[in-house]
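Q: How would the structure tokens look for this protein?
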Amino acid sequence: MGANLSYATVDLAGRVAIVTGSNTGTGYETAKALATMGAKVVMACRTQARAEQAMERMKHEVPESSLDLTFAPLDLSSLKSTADFADWFLGKHDKLNILCCNAGYVATSFEATGDGMERSFQTNYLSHFLLITRLLPLLKTCSPDPRVVSVASYAHNYGKVDLAATHAREAFGQMRTYGTSKLHQILMTGALHRRLKGTGVTVTSVHPGVVKTEFSRASTAAKVFYNVGYAVGAIRNPAEGAATIIHACVNPEYEGQENLYFADCKPTVASAVARNTESQERLFEYSVSLLKDHMQAEGAALLGVDLATVNSPTAGAPLPRQDGMGSSASTAAAVVSPGAASDAASDTTTSNVAADDAASAVPATADGDTTVQPPPAAADETTAAPSPAATGGAASEPSPAAADDVAPESSPATADGQPCSNEDAESREDT
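A: Here is the predicted structure in token form.
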């Protein structure tokens, strides 16, 4: 692939990390690498059985290391599950050094969660933002070098900022909707950067590349695309895809340099739309309005938010809440008992990409990444927000490769035409 996908090996003994969607794919490789370096890793996934299988596989692959791995259930399509996971973690741990927001989801058609949100928006972006806000007070107190790493995607170039249409069925388009959720992740990195500047918390986002993971089973076309692409060196295996994520999590060179965007194990530049300060601030305000009943006062205050003054969104309001809607019911109350949270690895969220985005003029590949046309020109970066935006380093523009994160939660078809189980859909993959 021509990229130098090496990362520093750092002594992480005594540090605690959370990796969402870590039972397979890049999340699996990231959790394994952090644990091999000595970190205690909490594998936040939906399915305990798959997490335990992943953990046993890690221990078999790294027999010389004593890996400290714990499973805890987390369903990012449920705000309650996300809040319950955070409460469990805070009740069991007195430190958090690395929060890796890796799990992701790609929908083949419009889906709403039990919270009334479009599923990609909630799973890929909003629940991760809620998790950050609830764990931020602990992160801020943990030295050295606490980090938040969001696994985004080059697909963010195909997203758009249209908050009023976030949960509108008629606005759904597979590539556009997924790309928008990735764009939201990078926009929020910028908004968090301004609010956390000077706190020591490093906030970054990552494009891991196009990665051959469980995502490749979404359809026969996907399987062929991945196999051919992998054979000619155009697609990475999960370990290669995880390299940039691990690099962002541990490289001491980037301590305190918030708002970096990484590709190929080096800082680069996200799109101008992703760096637009006004869009970052609008997304922040919209997200807080959606989460005002789920955020806690201490974390909100660290971000300059007084929850008592937050109003419900006037545009882009969620659909009426239906706990039985879709497959996003809260996971077993998501409260982990000490016994249930046995050493296990957890699920990530893989993707169910199938039909091309009919609403998009840009053809999508089987992994959801567009490789034919360049993204539309983005507006110049603005500075219409509280403090100026910082990009924190730059290099060349990333190559038009997809991302590494996706996870279906309903039932996408596998390559043999059979429906995927939720677990199959639950691992972070390429987008």
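The chain is about 30% helix and 10% strand.

Residues 119-141 form the longest helix (23 residues).

Upvote if useful.
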